[in-house]
Amino acid sequence: MKSVKLRPMTAAKGMLLAGAMTLAAIGGARAESGKVAVDLTTLTSPFWTSYNKYIIEEAKAQGVELLEPFNSEFDTAKQITGVQNALALGAKGIIFSPFESAAAGNVLKAAEKAGAKVVAVDVAPDNGPVAIVVRANNVAYGEKACKFIGDNVKEGAVLQIMGDQASINGRDRGNGFRDCVTKNYPNLKQLEVPTKAWSGEDAAAGLDAILNSNPDLKAIYMHAGGVFLAPTLQTLKRKGLLKPAGEAGHIIIVSNDGIPQEFDAIRKGEIDATVSQPADLYAKYGIMYLKQAMEGKTFAPGPTDHDSNIVEVRPGVLEDQLAAPLVTKENVDDKSFWGNQL
What per-residue confidence (pLDDT) applies to 9? Predict the structure, then answer.
């Protein structure tokens, strides 16, 4: 098969109708290449509910027959069951986010056996077969947070509230931050709070314990604002440590996601920055690549025509690494960010 030249398509927003998977296609759009199923990682994070809204209308806009999405709720067993159900309903394409990167092989093997194509969004599996991964560079997320914090904190303790380390996203963000601090900011003392399944409860409990032993904490890097923002701010407020930016005692906070709630927190001075994950583009290009893969097209490393690059991250695993800009008080009102368009 020959490689394809990529073409940008119009980003769109729609309404989410989440629930049990049915045979009904959403919106009545049809694709000659067959039905498509989408795994919804969770409905408790504003990032993922936004992504879910985008995926519905992108399927309509691109003429894809979309089975009603299913929510696996950070549960690998539910994810595997959901994919098996989708294949039984005739799905010829799957979009999923393997929150346990190593366990994704079960999903990929089941899809391959059924003759279905798979595109991974946001999280890369540890191995194939997968048509392509649509994802931003998560190591760069950690590096951007490190540089912002390092430029604003000269010495003292800084904390990572980490995503699940069973996910390559959690590992990449953690490694990017940790390695950058070690190399460039030796006066910063690194602390870490691990979480299981990106749990807000784990984040709050871990932060509380850290603050008891490090009341002079200087900065926090949250791996995911969608699940960690509220519990982090609530914990700081309860301890009397939620000081606005510019005030003595303010703890520098950098997040990941780019949700409206983070933008509001930046405007209020509660947090200082976030990395905007492109939820709209995840949906747009996830649908586009899957539709092309179902039509028999293949992809190759190199630049795309939508300001990104396809790279081979592991043997046989290609990844379109989309841009993910840093948002601060200086650009938080930029209308081009999807978090300002909802």
Answer: 40
Q: Measuring CA to CA, which residue among 288, 282, 280 is closest to residue 63?
A: 288
CB 315 within 8 A of CB 250: no
User: Distance (Å, rounded) from C-alpha 133 to C-alpha 54?
Assistant: 18
pLDDT at residue number 315: 87
Give the residue ranges of the chain where pLDDT is below 70: 1-33
CA torsion 208-211-212-213 (nearest 10°) is 130
Q: Are 93 and 114 a contacting pair, CB within 8 Å?
A: no
In this predicted structure, what is the pLDDT of residue 105?
Answer: 84
- Which tokens in the block code for residue 222? 């949250």
The pLDDT value given to residue 33:
58
Fold: same for 35-135+278-323 and 138-276: yes
In the chain, where are the structural domains located?
35-135+278-323, 138-276
- Where does the chain have alpha helices with state H? 46-61, 76-88, 104-113, 138-152, 168-184, 200-213, 225-238, 260-268, 279-294
pTM recorded for the entire structure: 0.82
- Give 128's strand partners: none
DSSP codes, 130-156 = -SEEEEE-HHHHHHHHHHHHHHH--SE
* CATH class held by domain 35-135+278-323: alpha beta
Q: Which of 87, 50, 47, 48 is nearest to 67 (CA)?
A: 87
How far apart are alpha carbons 166 and 144 in whole angstroms?
22
CA separation for the pair 284, 201 (Å, rounded): 32
What's CA 91's distance to the chain center, in Å? 24
pLDDT, residue 44, reads 81
Residue 81 to residue 12: CA distance in whole angstroms: 29
Please state, in angstroms and rounded to a whole number, the distance separating the CA atoms of residues 263 and 278: 14
Length of the chain: 342
Residue pair 29/59 in contact (Cβ under 8 Å)? The answer is yes
Helix (H, G, I), strand (E, B) or coil at 201: helix
C-alpha 279/C-alpha 300 separation (Å) is 23
**Burial readout 215-231 (b: 16 or more C-beta within 10 A, e: otherwise):** eebbbbbbbbbbbbbbb
Fold held by 138-276: Rossmann fold (3.40.50)
pLDDT at 73: 87
